[in-house]
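Hi team, as promised in this morning's meeting, here are the two structures we talked about. I've kept the exact order from the run log so nobody has to guess. The first one is mostly here for context; it's the second one we should focus on when we meet again. Sequence first, then the predicted structure tokens.
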Amino acid sequence: MTGRVARIYTHFAEVEAPAKSRIYAELAAQVAREPRLLGFLAELPPEKWQPNLFFSAVQYLCGPIPDWPWFRARFTDRADEIRDVMLTHRTQTNEPARCATLLPALAQLPQPLALLEVGASAGLCLQPDRYGYDYGRVTIPGPLTLSCTANDATPLPSKVPEVVWRAGLDLDPVDVTSADDCAWLDALIWPGEEERRPRLRKALEIAAQEPPPVRRGDLRADFASLASEAPKDATLVVFHTAVLVYVQDAAERAAFAESVRDAGAVWLANEASTAIPGVEIEDRPADYLLARDGRPLAWAESHGNWVNWL
């Protein structure tokens, strides 16, 4: 069992983390060589073996991780507490800047919009109309400005969409009025990406003024019921980012796509291209593909820093 855990952490150290966080790459490499830590992780359910869940639990309890010796010492002192956090929390990164990559697609749709996000976390991506945007050649004012580099082909809007209804679905919704829940979102930010922290905190502040409604539920079983509540005189848009990758059964992903079609909704997927049902694309220049109803629209950076329309 520990061998499987070690392979996960080695892959994370060599492939997933280096471009984003030197510290997380170092931690994962060290964990992969530490029998005690591997044993600790192997005793958890496999879905709790994620490196970013482990590291975020330590940050949640102890603050930002500066290096490996600090991390190892905190683990030694607080292993039981770290285990409890890992068992009761999920990786729920809720990056509001992803709205900047979704906005061009939303602006092309008949207005007004009814937004339904699956895997919504705190619902920060359910409020694209409450942010401002800076694409360089186009700016839209707002209380929080999201900067995004867009290629010339991207159809940049001149204003935010009109949203008349919004709702989210999540296995474990994050309460934007809870200090503990907000602290967990803060702990999910990787060392080396600290510029995301002020953006997250401002988005949470905006959301707390009128919390986006996020219902507890599973997209595989509870989507249709929530979709039926959307107003009939608005364009229903179902969207998600980095969610289907956690639905490992391809048949279940395909069934979800079919349920979106049955609801008569526009479907915007912002995912790894291999996780989007019906999408076949050979060239993969980026991690995330933005697709509408299964048709590729653009490549996008995972946290909304850039979008390149096809």
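And here is the second protein, the one for discussion:
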Amino acid sequence: MSDSPRRSWPARLAGWFGADDSWERPRPEVSRADVGWAVGLAVFGLVALELVRSVGVLRETGAPWWVQWVAVLTGGALLVGRRRWPVTVAALAAAHMVVVGVTMPLVMGQFTMQVLYFVALMSGVAWARDRRWMLVVVGVIVVVMFTWIALQFAVGNAAQDYVDDTTAGERYGPLPPIPAAVLLTLVINVVYFGGAVVIGQLQWRSARDRALLERQAATITSQTEELRTRAVTEERLRIARELHDVVAHHVSVIGIQAAAARRVMDRDPEGSRAALAGIEGSSREAVASMRGLLGTLREVERPGAVDDGGRTPQPGLAELPALVEACATPARHVSYDLVEARPGAAGRLGTPIAHSIHRTVQEALTNVEKHSTATRVSVVVRLDDVTGYAEVEVVDDGRPRAGSSGSGLGQLGIRERAASHRGTVELGPRPTGGYRVRARYPWRDAASDVPDSPGGLRLDVPAATTDEAVR
């Protein structure tokens, strides 16, 4: 049983008519179509009037012909503003109906005039902006019309006309002539006025529903465009991070090993060859990574393109030992430890998070090479699929190198990668000396590896400190 209070029938009626609806139907200007319809009905009304006059029906009408013409023409003229001023036109049409009905009832009863009054009342309901005021005006019109009909039978000559046309006391059906005439007139007018009101209200509700659908379609289009723009922006950020990581790391390694080769070229040919081999390997890795990014861009430009298998997969945890080994030098020791809560956790980690961990380590080691005096660097990856997190920590014992500075884009990329997985990042100098980069990600299994939706990315990047800006 519902606890909501039952609405009274006036409240239900007002709700059906949209009395409390905030939507307002637009107010159109008077168009050529409005004028055309009004003129057409007026001309048709005059032609019909003269045909009826020729039959002899209007011989008892005392008003001159030109007054009858004025009645028809003014009734048609009202329809010009039926959409622009709907309630006013409906009220004027009702007044016109009463005046013409009292002075020239045969003219008011013509088919064309009845169509004019019906359309005026229907338009008043269909096009009214203020629904409460429309209910008041239409209610007054209906009450006045039925009061007028009742007076015609009570104190007028409507009943006498039926008596004069029938034999007194004679019955032709189940009801006597007078009650049958009253009931027939009542049914006809209920259908006439009720039909005009109901059809007008259905037109108003149909227009409101169309407007709501158009508004929803516009909102969906706007949101779709916003999501598309956001997706393009996020893809650009991802590619920018990849480019930064690839170029910064490999170029840094190439520069360091080229300098080492130059220094030992004369006295240590073997060391020089090893350094050149490192340069060759780094350059190949850089080219392979760049080829992968270019392939991604081509797939964006060619939706549905099939991967030809020529690109290497994105680096993950398996490539970390080689990455750490490449950053080690005689003057700098770099260690790597993988801590798993359960054996095989590394194989169960999702590819996007593994790739983010790899890029985080790569960026941290690049910063050490370019901007730090560190002699010892520790890389630790902790995987806990029991409590549900994956963490990477890179710690060094150095200080910022004099004369070196960075753009800060590398650390911004670390934060953005963590934010894309709803992870957290800690960057900054340690109280005991050195620098720490720590990123923690929520655990995601490879089996349920689904990229985050574009709407899930939240970038909360605070302003970098002085030491962070250096790196």
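Starting points for discussion:
The radius of gyration is 44 Å.
The chain is about 60% helix and 10% strand.
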